[in-house]
Amino acid sequence: MDNRYFIYEVVGLRQSAATDTLNYPIRRSSSVFIRVPYSRMNQTMRRISQLGGKIVSIRSLTLNTEAQSSFAWWVEIVTAEPAVTYYFGPFDSPEEAASYEAGYIEDLEQEGAQGIAVTVKWCKPDNLTIF
């Protein structure tokens, strides 16, 4: 069995006529990361294209390197006022990370933050708060 996996970084996913038949909305975002097994690469590329997305990078990821890596899924929130970058996580999947976004945004808005931009990233932040 082939245990190769790849991480697709995708931009421009949007709600469209093709996705209107789904029971859930597709939100436009700056970047989405999708973990794809080797056996489903072509199918996933076609699906991303149908959803209006564009693949901007593909990285190789094997189960062994994933387990040994200290990278994980993080929610990155950048605020314009105050000018701060926050990292929340780590999470096991981009879906899990995205499920927490609203709570983090609400907390920052209650603290008076403005100009909030959110991205789910596969990364290893050195600092969780950057001023």
Detailed description of the structure:
By secondary structure, this protein is α+β, with helices and mostly antiparallel strands. The protein contains 3 helices and 7 strands; from the N terminus they run E-E-H-E-H-E-E-H-E-E. It has helices at 41-50, 63-68, 94-110, and strands spanning 4-11, 32-37, 54-62, 72-81, 84-91, 114-123, 129-130. The strands form 2 sheets. It has a 4-stranded antiparallel sheet with strand order 6-4-5-7, with helices on one face. Strands 2-1-3 form a 3-stranded antiparallel sheet. The chain is elongated and about 45 Å long. The termini are far apart. The mean pLDDT is 80.
Rounded to the nearest angstrom, the distance between the terminal CA atoms is 46 Å
- For the secondary structure, the number of strands is 7
Helix and strand pattern: EEHEHEEHEE
Percent of residues in beta strands? 35-45%
Mean pLDDT across residues:
80
Provide key terms for this protein:
131 residues, alpha+beta, four-stranded antiparallel sheet
In terms of topology, how is this protein built?
Elements: E1 4-11, E2 32-37, H1 41-50, E3 54-62, H2 63-68, E4 72-81, E5 84-91, H3 94-110, E6 114-123, E7 129-130
Antiparallel strand pairs: 1-2, 1-3, 4-5, 4-6, 5-7
How would you summarize what this structure contains?
By secondary structure, the chain is an alpha+beta fold. The chain contains 3 helices and 7 strands.
